[in-house]
Design a protein that fits this description.
The complex is a heteroheptamer. Chain A has 108 residues and is mostly helical. Chain A contains four helices and no strands. Chain A is flat and about 45 Å long. Classes of the chains: A mainly alpha (108), B mainly alpha (86), C mainly alpha (225), D mainly alpha (286), E mainly alpha (201), F mainly alpha (108), G mainly alpha (222).
Chain lengths: 108, 86, 225, 286, 201, 108, 222
């Protein structure tokens, strides 16, 4: 059964990436410019990475569904046009990582 | 009756001598001489086959040696006729 | 008596001579191979591969069983066939290389040897008859030798191409004969005698006709004016 | 689970994951060379795109082969997925599949009649030598573990620990193979840029789609085998991390090295193979 | 490194490959002297000691393996006797002519056993018949290749039709010599013109 | 003294003399003669092993090989002589053009 | 080593006297693949090599003539069948014979072409193929002498002795030379510069498959 979920995750990630690509092309028609952090992408990134690392924290919803959502969000953030979405992803990983370290008890 | 091992030794000696002669013998730059020299080695091998009582193989060897020689000579003379430097 | 005809183990002579014979074979092979490694001209290498083939015979024969002889027999004929094919490639390569200078027709030969007019018919007949009696690889080789000498000595220039095709067809059919014989051995074991003859004659015809082909190739090489 | 469903799911996973990894590999190379590079899903989008393009056939092509070779390529890699992740069967079959992959490279190049494809075809023959490390690796593994089944090797590793610690040289040899098979590699003489796209040059449309589909599966399977037979039983996360790390390493290597001359490429691989094989056998004996 | 590169480049020349192969093989064979060799005496298809049958005066020495024609099978130690139902029958079989020869002289063993029947035929046709199929196929392929090349290239078939070869040759020779003469003349003239141009410049 | 002169010794002696002769003599025709000595030795050996049929066949095939040698040698001698004699430039040119015509016919 | 360890479980045997062919998943895979390729070769036509010429707008076309095509197709099909046989054979000497057949047929496939370079490499490869008679048959004979058998089933259960290892090594060299892997690749690779894609495909296919099979045999007998 595990493989089915892996397939779903990958597909969702790809769909997210494509969506992210389309979104960013719609938003930025111009050639590449260094821009500020995009809030929407940041939110997706944080949500995605947070869920990926910390889906075990919650006990109400099955982790598969959470992971599916997480991969979609990550894809949305990573799959931007080249050059976009890097900082957002980094921030997302950072926050999710910190939360994971704090909650998982690695430190203590 | 007679010493069988002696025959094997003679056969091997002929084979080795013949192959040496074929490879480094006098005048082997000429392919004709080289081809004739292979005959010595083949007689050595014939002797070994004879001693090992593989007479059918011996017969076949004698028959094929001639034909192989024929083929080689054909190749040599043809190439010389063409004037090929191989 | 019958039980002791075939020994249980390999006789002491073979096992005591094995090391010697194997080493001898390896030495011959080594000499031949080093000769090839040092040789630069192509035709010379072709001649030297003959020595390597002889070394192979020694190594195989050294085992000293009926099986090893059965392995030698066809190996010999195969070696012959390969030399044939490769020398042909060499000739055709050189001809194509020197396309401008070459003639297809080999130089006609002016030979007047007494032996070439009287002996061959008899020898060839003898060899072919004996080869037919022997059958199999050996018989094929012997009878083929007879055909070769016959064709060589006779003034048969200008054999039509049909003959070559015919020879090919004979050998193809005999090959099929042999295959059928082989299948009979396992499908209908009660007809083993029939299959034995199919196999033996098929092989004989095949080898003999193929070697006879060499004679046809040679006839223009040594065909007289 | 139903076997067919399992095969299907695994093929899809292999295709998608392989495409993503190839895209990622390209991204890594781009970043090393200080370019932004295409998005990671670009490779996947390309492959999908080709399935909807018009397919044409060169007039000079050797027809049944020209078409069927792509189908064969896809077929063997689906077989590869079945033997590998699904059935965990014999390694020998997987390497048989690699041999056929070589054949496909060879024939896809020559069947079109294009001179570039022809050069690629001849080089494919040269680089058949690149398969030698493979055989050396499996031989060494077989000598150590006494089994050829992937499941058997996994079982062996769960008892004796990962093979990479016991056979580091074999792992190095296999890694050389991965580098060889990775795109833009210094050893990838069949797809060097001086011969356009090598053997794929004359395959358009749907046929190219099949080729790209199979290539991504091939890449995934290669990494999967490497991780499986050298790192023992690892979890999904382990596979993901391992594959990404390998992609990064090969990306670095490929981004910074020029392509070798065909002879040198082949002989370099062979030299590595010989040294590593002898070393591994000595290590096993000691 | 450049030396290695040069060496590797040399390997790309087909002419060097047989030599290299021979060298490597030769060196490997020399390694054969270092390892202990010996014949395992437990072989299949064993044969009696050389000349023992001849000394014993058997009529079909050296291939006497027992058995009577169409009555009892000879002795053949096959690897898998269960796969060959009629093992040994071929071994003991002889053609009528061979049977007759057998009575004449004890020195015709080889030819008697080579004609259908005998242990070698047993091995070649029956127990290891598949090998012989392959061998004869190799033979056939080699000859197909050779004869194809010969017919289509190395052998001349054009000449066979014309009997007056010499006359034709002479005619052709005259014609071509004419042509060559004219060509030579042409080139001479060209050369002279060139010379003239140079001198006048 | 005389006990050394039996079939074995004679045949071995013949073979060895023949072998040395074949190798050391330089002229091809001399070599052919020594080859026949060599083969006579082999013939004697076969006789001393008492294989009459093999000996019979050898007796037939040996002259055959000598014939083959002689034919080939005569042929090659002629080829070499002709190349020495008439390979003056004009003839060579003649030959070459003639053959180019022929080849264009036969090569197809 | 046991045969079962290598290519999966033995699924069946075809006994032909002393020569017993056997099938396991690996063999079936290789066997079926080679037959598919052979079938494709039998029905396919050849490509035309087109190259542009220097200094003009013309193109240089090289294609396979009809006579040549028939000859080469015949030999390719034989080569395919021989390779298929080599995949399932269970006898050492039988395997070497299949190799020899493949070798000679490989030479034949390219011998019919007109390019001098290709003929040259075919000749050089032919020399190797002839020399390979020694390592292949000689190696098999050495293994026979050391063990008293040629059947892979029997050999699999006999522990390796130095002489067997030597024989196997000699055979390995023979297979390497005959199938043209590095460092002997050049003579074979140069043969591929001729048109006739389906035919030269089988040359390459057979040599690779032979290597795969030989690795299996090597691991079986050692």
């Amino acid at each position: 059964m595990e493989e089915l979920y892996i397939m779903i995750y990958i597909i969702v990630f790809i769909v997210g990436s494509i969506a992210g690509l389309l979104l960013s092309y719609k938003k930025h028609m111009e050639p590449y410019i260094i821009s500020e952090i995009d809030v929407l992408t940041l939110v997706f990134s944080i949500v995605g990475w947070f869920l990926l690392f910390n889906h075990g924290l919650n006990h109400f919803i099955s982790s598969e569904i959470l992971l599916t959502i997480a991969f979609f969000c990550i894809g949305l953030a990573i799959g931007r046009r080249p050059g976009y979405g890097r900082k957002e992803t980094a921030i997302g990983i950072l926050i999710a990582g910190i939360v994971w370290i704090l909650t998982s008890g690695v430190l203590f | 009756m007679f010493n069988l091992a002696l025959w094997v030794y003679v056969g091997l000696a002929l084979a080795i001598f013949g192959s040496l002669a074929t490879v480094w013998g006098p005048g082997v730059k000429d392919p004709v001489i080289r081809t004739i020299n292979t005959e010595v080695a083949s007689v050595g091998v014939s002797l070994i086959l004879l001693t090992y009582n593989s007479t059918l193989a011996l017969l076949t060897l004698i028959a094929t040696t001639i034909i192989v020689t024929l083929i080689l000579f054909r190749a040599i003379s043809r190439l010389e006729e063409i004037g090929a430097d191989v | 008596m019958v039980a002791s005809i075939v020994p249980q183990f390999v006789p002491a002579f073979y096992s005591s001579m094995y090391t010697t014979a194997l080493y001898g074979g390896l030495i011959v092979a080594f000499i031949g191979l080093i000769g090839i490694a040092m040789e630069k001209r192509d035709i010379q290498v072709l001649i030297l591969t003959d020595i390597v083939g002889l070394a192979m015979l020694i190594v195989v024969a050294a085992v000293g069983t009926d099986l090893s002889e059965a392995l030698i027999l066809p190996g010999l004929v195969v070696e012959l066939a390969e030399i044939m094919a490769i020398s042909e490639i060499l000739i055709s390569r050189e001809m194509r290389k020197k396309d401008v200078h070459t003639s297809f027709a080999p130089m006609p030969l002016n030979i007047d040897m007494e032996i070439m007019t009287t002996a061959p018919n008899f020898i060839a007949l003898l060899l072919i008859g004996y080869g037919v009696f022997l059958s199999g690889f050996t018989g094929g080789a012997v009878a083929g030798g007879g055909i070769v000498i016959y064709v060589l000595s006779r003034k048969v220039r200008g054999l039509p191409i049909v003959v070559l095709d015919g020879v090919g067809a004979i050998s193809g059919i005999s090959w099929c004969l042999w295959i059928i014989g082989f299948l009979f051995f396992f499908i209908l074991p009660q007809y083993w005698l029939l299959s034995l003859f199919l196999a033996a004659l098929g092989l004989l015809l095949k080898v003999a006709s193929k070697i006879g082909l060499i004679g046809i190739l040679m006839r223009e090489e040594y065909g007289r004016k | 689970m139903n076997l067919m469903a399992q095969i299907l799911i695994n093929v899809i996973i292999a295709f998608l994951a392989g495409s993503l990894l190839l895209g990622f590999h390209r991204k890594v190379m781009a970043r090393v060379q200080l370019r932004p590079g295409p998005p990671i899903i670009q490779y996947l989008l390309h492959s999908l795109k080709f399935f909807f393009k018009e397919t044409t056939f060169p007039k000079t092509a050797s027809i049944p082969f020209y078409i069927s070779i792509t189908v064969i390529l896809a077929g063997i890699w689906v077989t590869g997925v079945i033997v590998g992740p699904v059935a965990k069967g014999s390694l020998m079959i997987l390497f048989g599949i690699y041999a056929i992959h070589k054949i496909v490279e060879h024939n896809a190049g020559s069947s079109s009649g294009s001179p570039y494809g022809k050069v690629s075809c001849v080089r494919a023959v040269f680089s058949a030598a690149g398969e030698l490390p493979l055989f050396a690796v499996i031989a060494v593994i077989f000598i150590l573990t006494g089994t050829m089944d992937i499941s058997g090797i996994i079982a062996y590793q769960s008892i004796h620990g990962p093979l990479i610690f016991q056979l580091p040289l074999a792992a190095l040899m296999f890694f050389t193979l991965i580098v060889t098979k990775s795109p833009y590699s210094p050893f990838a003489i069949t797809k060097g840029k001086e011969i356009i796209s090598g053997f794929e040059t004359e395959h358009f449309g749907m046929l190219r789609g099949y080729i790209m589909f199979s290539e991504s599966i091939a890449w995934y399977i290669l990494l999967w085998i490497f991780l499986t037979i050298f790192f023992g039983p690892i979890s999904v996360v382990g596979y993901v991390i391992g594959m990404i790390v390998i992609c990064i390493i090969t990306g670095f290597i490929n981004a910074t090295t020029p392509m070798l001359n065909p002879n040198h490429s082949v002989m370099a691989q062979i030299s590595i193979a010989v040294i590593c094989t002898v070393g591994s056998i000595i290590m096993i004996i000691i | 490194m450049p030396k290695i590169a040069k060496l590797w480049n040399k390997l790309a020349d087909p002419k060097n490959i047989p030599r290299l192969f021979a060298l490597i093989l030769g060196l490997l064979l020399i390694a054969g002297f270092l390892i202990p060799v010996g014949l395992n005496t437990d072989q299949i298809y064993t044969r009696p000691a050389p000349q023992s049958q001849m000394d014993a005066g058997l009529a079909i020495a050296p291939y006497d393996r027992g058995g009577e024609i169409l009555e009892s099978p000879g002795i053949t130690e096959a690897q898998y006797p269960e796969n060959s139902q009629n093992l040994g029958w071929i071994n003991s079989y002889m053609t009528p002519i061979a049977d007759m020869l057998k009575g004449i002289s004890p020195y015709f063993g080889t030819s008697i056993c080579a004609s259908p029947g005998g242990v070698i035929d047993e091995i070649l046709y029956y127990t290891r018949g598949f090998d012989t199929i392959l061998e004869s196929s190799i033979l056939m392929m080699a000859f197909i290749i050779a004869s194809w090349l010969a017919i289509n290239f190395t052998m001349d078939r054009k000449e066979e039709k014309g009997k007056g070869d010499i006359e034709e040759d002479v005619k052709r020779a005259i014609a071509s010599s004419d042509r060559i003469a004219s060509e030579v003349e042409m080139s001479n003239r060209k050369a002279r013109e060139k010379q003239a141009k140079k001198e006048f410049r | 003294m005389l006990e050394f002169i039996d079939l074995t010794t004679i045949s071995i002696a013949l073979m060895i003399i023949g072998a040395i002769g074949v190798v050391l003599l330089k002229k091809p025709l001399d070599k052919v003669i020594m080859v026949s000595v060599l083969e006579a030795g082999l013939f004697l050996a076969i006789v001393s092993f008492r294989y009459l049929d093999v000996a019979f066949l050898t007796a037939v095939l040996d002259p055959l090989s000598i014939i083959v040698f002689l034919l080939a040698l005569i042929k090659i001698n002629q080829v070499r002589k002709s190349q020495l004699n008439d390979y003056s430039t004009v003839l060579k040119m003649l030959k070459s053009t003639e053959n180019s015509e022929k080849n264009s016919e036969g090569g197809k | 080593m046991l045969i079962e360890n290598l290519g999966g479980n033995v699924m069946g045997t075809i006994p032909l006297g002393d020569i017993v062919l056997y099938l396991n998943p690996l063999h079936i895979f290789l066997f079926v693949t080679i037959l598919v390729f052979t079938a494709l070769i039998a029905i396919s036509r050849t490509e035309t090599q087109v190259e542009s010429m220097f200094g003009s707008l013309d193109e240089n076309k090289v294609s396979v003539g009809k006579k040549e095509f028939k000859q080469r197709r015949f030999l390719s099909v034989i080569c395919g069948i021989a390779t298929a046989g080599a995949m399932i054979t269970g006898d050492l000497f039988n395997f070497t014979l299949f190799m020899a057949l493949i070798g000679i047929v490989n030479i034949g496939i390219v011998s019919a072409v007109k390019q001098v370079d290709v003929l040259n490499s075919a000749y050089q490869y032919g020399l190797i193929a002839m020399m390979c008679g020694l390592p292949l048959f000689g190696g098999a004979a050495m293994i026979l002498a050391a063990t008293g058998t040629l059947s892979l089933f029997e050999l699999a259960s006999i522990p390796a002795s130095p002489m067997m290892i030597f024989g196997a090594l000699v055979m390995l060299i023979g297979v390497c030379g005959e199938s043209g892997i590095a460092p002997f690749f050049a003579s074979k690779a140069e043969m591929f510069r001729t048109p006739g894609s389906p035919f030269i495909l089988i040359i390459h296919l057979s040599s690779l498959f032979i290597i795969v099979r030989f690795v299996e045999i090597l691991l079986t007998i050692l």
